[in-house]
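haha ok so turns out i had the wrong file open the whole time. this is the CORRECT one, sorry everyone. sequence first:
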Amino acid sequence: MRYVVAGTAGHIDHGKTSLVRALTGVDTDRLKEEKQRGISIDLGFAHLALSPECTLAFVDVPGHERFVKNMVAGATGIDFVLMVIAADESIKPQTREHFDICRLLGVSRGIVVLTKCDLVDKEILDLVKLEVEEFVKGSFLEQAPIVAVSAVTQSGLQELRQTLLAVAMQAPARPSQRYFRLPVDRSFSMHGFGTVVTGTLASGAIATGDEVDLLPGAVRLRVRGLQVHGEAVEKAYAGQRTAVNLSGIEPAQVARGMTLAAPGRFAPTTLIDCSFDLLAGAKPLKPGAPVHFHAGTAETEATIRRVGPREPIRGGEHAWVRLRLREPLLVLPGDRFIVRMFSPVVTIGGGEVVDVEPPRKSTPERVERPRDAGPAERLLILVAESRAGMSLPELVRRTGWTEEEILAEAGKLKRIEAAPAWFAAPAWFEARGEALRGALKEFHRANPLLTGMPKEEARARVLGEAPAFVFEALLGESKDAVAEGETVRLKTHRVALGEDEESATRKIEGAFERAGLAVPSTQEVLSSTGIDPVRSRTLLQILLRKQSLVKVGDDLIFHRTALDSLRTLLAARRGARFQVGEFKQWTGVSRKYAIPLLEFLDRQRLTRREGDSRVIL
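then structure:
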């Protein structure tokens, strides 16, 4: 079954609602005020089974200039448009504005419907057809069918139904394989059901029992039930007009402009880079001009400025622009939008979203490249702009693509195995490898007696705030560097001691070895080496890294042979319970050494403290 959405467009009182009622039998004017005033104020919905294989959903939009924002909300999710023009009035102001809106939203097909044909003779009708052909010349409606009808006499309706079926069957399928997204156009309460929201599925599918995010706000909700065209279903797909029964929220907490989306996949934004067309005849837009921004079913205030030179955007001009939204909205690259003048509120332009998390500074070339690039190149552009690569979920959020689509197009990226997968630009990764080699070379030159640079220092120098696993991947693929414990060195680096340093090293180690467990102070040993304090302390660090010496306390360093003898002494008493006094007798050391040694043994799990006693493990 093919589900297609058609939207009406046209001037007030040109018969849009009457046409839908004549085709479907449904009166889309549902509000009391609409009945009283005889005009559409808000969106109306109806559906028509055109054939066993095709069902058409109608979105009936208001034509009055005061309610054009409601028209925009309805026109955003349609597959084609019925441009409704009354034969007795021909083209009027809202005809033109609705036509501009459809063009700016990227609507690519439609039908021109001449209504109220019972009110004019054939000559007038032919004249109106000529006016319409001239009006749509050069646009997406230039080759569109023009059908004359009368909702009163029913003339032309059968021809219109056949035309609707032909156009509907040509409409491309919606992206059901993408993640679920439904812009909300209505929210209400149904007795016995609770909160119900409606909208046209922009992408993906949704099933009863699914969890969804309500954005902005990131409220996690569950789907209690679904209806498509008034019938309960277990699953709804992209392109279908869908009613979603939600649990855990009140109708007042959901408003038009919010979006139901796949959980954890997307995030709202307030800054977007876009391709933009300002309508001919519109006044120039100065940098930072306030406008009304419409995307999907959402509307918010925004400021607009040209990317690059701070020049006004002039009527009829195409520009790359940055929009700063007053409120966060969920939009994705490829989404179409409308801009209306702040005052008076008239449609002046529109375009396509290119980037939803753009860098602070940008250029026209930077905005243009990802829009015109293929999927693989676009991923490379996004990853190359980042400081240290991007995770798979980040790429989903920036593109709107599925993980499977991204993985299939990620051949130009450097993939770093992590959870989740991480991608970097190959050129960046290679440059960071060179930076690591240079940093280590500089470190070894300044610190020839150290075996290597502390790993965290190396990561901070080369990668900044990048995740630790990126640095590990860099080390793993480096031809020049090697990690040893918590240090990193060049593979070619070896600690080369001078004759005086070799002599000093032997003195330091010998002093601690001869002392046994009653070791001298560290400063006393170092001052006896005969070399400067900086080098003597470096030699001490070398002995500690080799584990010839072991640091037990702040100023207590023991030779490993003394600690090995202590372990042997304790092993002979395994299971024994003792106190500090007994330990002093066994070892012959004073309390100054006994307490730090016992705490060291506890940390080594050779002893365990139990009150005032200890047990040898």
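Residues 426-446 form the longest helix (21 residues).
again sry for the mixup
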